[in-house]
Amino acid sequence: MKKLYLDSDVLLDLLLDREPFSEQIAQLIEDSISSGIKLCSSPISITNIHYIIGRLENKTKADSKVKKVLKIVRIENIGQEVIDKAVGSKFKDFEDSVQNYCAKDSEHEIIITRNTKDYKESELSIFTPEEYLAKISAE
Predict the structure, then answer these.
(1) Burial, 102: exposed, middle or buried (Cβ in 10 Å; 0-12, 13-18, 19+)?
(2) Phi, psi of 3 (to 5 degrees)
(3) Which of 92, 94, 105, 117 is buried deepest, with most CB atoms within 10 A?
(4) What is the C-alpha separation between 27 and 6, in angstroms, rounded?
(5) How far apart are CA 32 and CA 52, in angstroms?
(6) Sheet harboring 38-41: ordered strands across?
(7) Partners of 112 in beta bridges
(8) Using CA of residue 93, residue 95, residue 101, residue 103, what is the dihedral sign?
(9) Do 100 and 16 meet the contact criterion of CB atoms below 8 Å apart?
(10) Are 3 and 38 in contact (CB under 8 A)?
(11) pTM of the model
(12) pLDDT tens-digit profile of 19-77?
C-alpha cells in the first residue's frame, strides 16, 4: 500500500483554510483517500498543529481540529533511533530532520510539504501538494 507523509505546514493549510494552499491539500487528501493511499504524519506535527491553532484561535478549536486530522491521518512513531539520526544529520532545522527520519523509518517514500527547501538533505521524494497532484495526474 502506498503511503504519503504529510508535514505540519500542509495540515495547517487545510485546518486554517490558508489560501491558496488549502484547496490543493484538500484535493490531495480527497484523491488519496479515494485511491486507498494511507496518509500519515508524526506526533510532532500533531503537537505543532495543536499549539499553533490554540494560539491563533483557542484550545477548544485546537482540540476539535486535531480530532479531525486524526480521523484521516495515521500517526507514525518517533523513537530513540529517529532522534539519534536527526541529531547527527546535515539538516539545518532539527524538527525537519526528525520529520524526515520518522517518515524514512516508517518506510515512506514521499513527504508532502510546502517547504521543500527544508528537506534538501532528504533521500525521500519531496513534493508540494501542487507538485504531487501534477505528478499523479500525469501518470
Answers:
(1) buried
(2) -130, 145
(3) 105
(4) 13
(5) 26
(6) 74-75, 38-41, 3-6, 110-112, 125-127
(7) 6, 127
(8) negative
(9) no
(10) yes
(11) 0.93
(12) 999 999 999 999 999 999 999 999 999 999 999 999 999 999 999 999 999 999 999 99
Tell me how many degrees the CA angle 24-68-115 measures, rounded to the nearest 5. 40
Q: Where are the domains of the chain?
A: 3-138
Residues 6+ apart with CB under 8 A from 58: none
Q: DSSP letters of 21-78?
A: HHHHHHHHHHHHHHHTPEEEE-HHHHHHHHHHHHHHS-HHHHHHHHHHHHHH-EEPP-
Bin 81: left if φ > 0, else alpha if -120 < ψ < 50, else beta. Answer: alpha
Q: How many Cα atoms sit within 13 Å of 48 on the Cβ side?
A: 16
CA distance 139 to 45: 30
